Amino acid sequence: MQSILENPYLIAVLVALVPLVWILPYALFAIWLERKVSAHMQDRLGPMRTGGWHGWAQTIADMIKLLLKEDIIPSKSEKWLFILAPYIVFAGSYAAYAAIPFTSVYIGSNISVGVFYVVAVSSLVVVGILIGGWASNNKWSLLGAMRSAAQIVSYEIPSTLAILTVVMVVGTLNLQEIVKSQEGWFWNWFVFQKFPFLFISFLIYFIASLAEVNRTPFDIPEAESELVAGYHTEYSGMRFAMFFLAEYANMFAVSAVAVSLFFGGWESPFGTALSGPAWGVFWFLSKGLFFIFVQMWLRWTLPRLRVDQLMYTSWKVLMPFAFANIVFIGLWMMFSH
Amino acid sequence: MAEFRTEEMVLNMGPQHPSTHGVLRLEVVLDGEIVVNVVPHIGYLHRCFEKHAEAMTNYQQVIPYVDRMDYVTSMNNDLAYALAVEKLLGIQVPERVSYIRVIMAELNRIASHLIAIGTYGLDIGAFTPFLFCFRDRELILDLFEMTCGARLLYNYIWVGGLSHDLPHGFVEKARAFIKTFRPNIKELNDLLSYNKIFIDRTANVGVLPADVAINYGVTGPMLRASGVRWDLRKNDPYSLYERFDFEIPVGTNDIGVVGDSWNRYMVRVREMEQSLNIIEQALDNLPSGDVKSAIPKRIRPPVGEAYVRSESPKGELGFYVISDGSGSPFRVKARSPSFCNLSALPEISRGAMVADLVAILGSIDIVLGEVDR
Question: How many other CB atoms are found less than 10 A from the CB of residue A123?
């Protein structure tokens, strides 16, 4: 028994399983929440029957339905790439969890370049989307995938620039260190520091992250009224569910980064009160879920931008502000020392 | 330049596509994301309306078919057809009938515009306004259901009269609807009409100049959005519309330019307000009388022909009825606004992006049941 627990490979697998154990129930919950949030915003009730209380089992039932569906691979598609694409997308968003600090004692891998790793590895998603869109051999899918690639690549730049400002202030890329440096009451959170520059950084990061996870008003790659369903038009059953799961996993990943960088991560907002490893998980997840809620709120309120307007927003609005922000924070740090 | 041309792609939009508003197929020639040409292919919903009309044994029997042309504006279709046959017969309907017809037509106009506005929001990617619109439309359908039992295809306006008089409590319920609906238009404006993203997506998109609109025979809100103050309820009044006081909203240059998609959308929103005014006036001055007194026992019009045009929510809806003196119509030809309005689509969408094409098509507000008949 002792020897099994000391096996480093087994421990690595167990540590890696923790985010997965979180992602699956979280995704089920978030999909249910999305339906409920949208329903209540639209004067509806949403699912009410399945499972009894407010249709809590609806997404579980949906998942079972998707699992049991016939696995359709279009005959003219590029078969292996078609099969591979959803897994690459999911792997990209799942891998990002490795460097996210859930609490003071748990982080998948406490690497010194944590933020850099998260930004880099989540770019893998776009590869999967491109493969999926191209392999489907469908014009709508291809258009969606091309848009997606253009969008994600161009929004990564402002989001990285926004992250950079925090890195400048803390002087480390390690997410655990970044969270620890926001210790104390909530006014120590970076979003309230160096006001208003880090707050602007947060806004830029949040807007860009919406685009990175293809949420409204930037859900252009899967704009159902234009592109049917974008890059996942031809996908059905469990493969479609993988895309879905990846989207929700990604939503939480970007929220988690926002929380860690700007909102104190697992730190309690009330100084040392209500803090500790267990409270850390609580604070981290509730802050993360709050941003999930904001993403849903925006989705059910705003219309969708057009491709060129999307590019305009990224290159001509967010980018100059992000650069100016870096300059101002640099000056602030120079003169405050 | 010819050898540097980039490769064009032909994309079939529809007949199963979320934003072609039914079974319309658009053959789109694309250069990247830019639309080079659009060819609308229609006929997927052709139901031989004219042949059906000729095969009926009675003029009244055509009305349920007329209902099914533009199925979201059935009252207006009934009204236009009834007016055409009444003109052929030379009968005058009681004032109460005309007033009720106006109330129903205007309520139906609001319901139709709510669908146009809601689905337009959906085309642009805004989900919530769509459900808000349907929530309000539900109240109108409740009024119709209470009047004639049907919620979509009413068969309510008959030649010479109506199938039922207004039920007890209708007037109060209609007033209550007006009271709840007025603030909802403001809510809709806050949520969608003046939303920055919505304006970015629709203003200056698919501009239809007034002369082009007239050349294509475009009518209704689409023509008015191009700045032409033309509304048959004012310009060629029927069913006592001359007694009501209302304005004709036209396109403006406030946001975007006259004739763009945003103006086409906004004209509909403003028309709903005017329709509420008309309904209020009609409810205030509703005369008494028997709604069935003028319904002829046998409809056998003299040999001849009649054309009546009316302002349906989509535009000018005309019925051309020929009688050979028998009990059934010799020919019923419908001039449908959706069909003529759709014909302007290729003209205004060349050079637009795919996303704009959806915005332009949505702003035309077609119903395929009426395009194909």
Answer: 14
pTM: 0.85
| Beta-carbon separation of B353 and A308 below 8 A | yes
Question: For B194-206, what is each residue's pLDDT tens digit?
Answer: 888 888 888 888 8
Q: Measured between alpha carbons, how far is B339 from B186 in angstroms, rounded to an integer? A: 31
Dihedral of CA atoms B276, B364, B354, A312 in degrees, nearest 10, equals -40
Query: Which of A139, A216, A307 is the closest to B125 by Cβ?
Result: A216
Ordered structural domains, chain B, with CATH:
2-372 (1.10.645.10)
User: Which chain B residues touch A225 with a CB distance below 8 Å?
Assistant: 18-19, 122-125, 358
Nearest to A165 by CA among A317, A292, A331, A290: A331
DSSP state of B167: P
| CB-based contact B308:B84 (threshold 8 Å) | yes
- Give me the residue spans of the domains in chain A: 76-336
Of A143, A216, A225, the CB nearest to B18: A225
Residue of A277, A262, A269 whose CA lies nearest to A184: A269
Q: Which residues of A touch B354 (CB under 8 A)?
A: 143, 226-227
Mutant choice from A148, A215, A218, A226 vs B, greatest count of B C-beta within 10 A: A226
Using the beta-carbon criterion (under 8 Å), do B123 and A305 form an inter-chain contact? no
Q: Compare all CA atoms of chain A with the CA of B362 and give the residue at the minimum distance.
A: A225
pLDDT tens digits for range A190-229: 777 777 888 888 899 998 888 888 777 777 666 666 666 7
C-beta atoms surrounding B10 within 10 Å: 12
